[in-house]
Amino acid sequence: MERTILHVDLDAFFAAVEQRDRPELRGRPVIVGGDPGGRGVVSAASYEARRFGVHSAMSLREAGLRCPDGVFLPVDGRRYQQASRDVMAVLRRMTPMVEPISIDEAFLDVTGSRALFGDGASIAAAIKTAVREDVGLTASVGVATTKLVAKIASDLRKPDGLVVVPPGTEAEFLAPLPIGRLWGVGEKTREALAEYGVRTIGDLAALPADLVVRRFGKHGGSLVDRARGLDDDPVHEGDPAKSVGHEHTFDVDTTDAEVIERTLLGMADGVSGRLRSAGVRASTIAVKIRDSSFRTITRQRTLSEPTDLTEPIFRTALALARPEIRGIRVRLLGVSASNLGEPDQLGLFDLEDPRRRAAIEAADALRRRYGEHAVTRGRLVGARLPAPFERDPRNPLDRRARGAAVDPDSAEGPVDGAPARDSQAVNDVDDIPPDDT
Prior knowledge:
By secondary structure, this protein is of the alpha+beta class. 38% of the residues lie in helices and 18% in strands.
């Protein structure tokens, strides 16, 4: 049986949520990310803002220059996360085989749903209607026999598009598209392929596979397969989590040791909370430091005992960072935890004070119920660190925490007997590479 794969991609997601909830913003250029005078980047831009050349990952200052009449808004992660959950619930009405790959997009395998809901095009149209009517957002959908082709198709007619690639026409569909649309083709690969006259995906598909393999190794073989529309990757929940981390970019580069230490503490607190919310502990802690010249340093250390507590993570991060921050102005800091495992897999003896563990779990419960700032460390009061705003659905650690059963009478409280895992607080994952030195 031919597979039917859908890729559902919400249009200008963060900006669309703002326009949905604030009707006066509809039709206006909305830019989500913060103050145009700040040092952050654009998280999302409405299609009205994109007409001015504003796009995600652009600096907010550049966005302000290009679109001076734009409406600049801070990120409101809780609302976006709730909207994402609402959309994912719509998708799961059609099939249990849903693979979120970010907060605003997912793959679906609806092969087994066709008898109930019709062919891929019918299911895609039903999803678009439900997302619009039930959640108040628009989505673009690609329908194909593979994840690769469905993903490319969903991007071709945004916003509010629907592109169906019939079985057997995958290579024909891909052939005229620019080579940069193919997964695995970045700037350097594109430049190398240009030496062979490759400008479109069809150009690559026409090359002898052994020629591309000689030039790019095994990666070349997979590129040729993709160019020919071949992709047997199934829709799945993803690989085991490898790491979890937080980053913070300062508004102004700093040499203030107290500011740096408080920032490390805040991020260590966030990382430990995410570990506890997923029921895992980490054996390796890493820090990332970027200075005013954009030089980036990473250092890591393996702990004697795995942990999910703030103090050992903070102490380790501080010990790693202190020698590196001397004499430099710090632009960015990151704290990451890796080497993850279940608590009962990580040690024979539990040396923790049970009263301390009980206090930590009580604080976690208060944060789940009343928000991240319900309980704050004294040293972080007034520190003005940004609250974590978004769980990364691509990270299995966060999917695991998000999957906890929830009491219908409490938006965030766990059902009696269910593990007390956080379904709200967190922010982006940053995999800090190991220290090669």
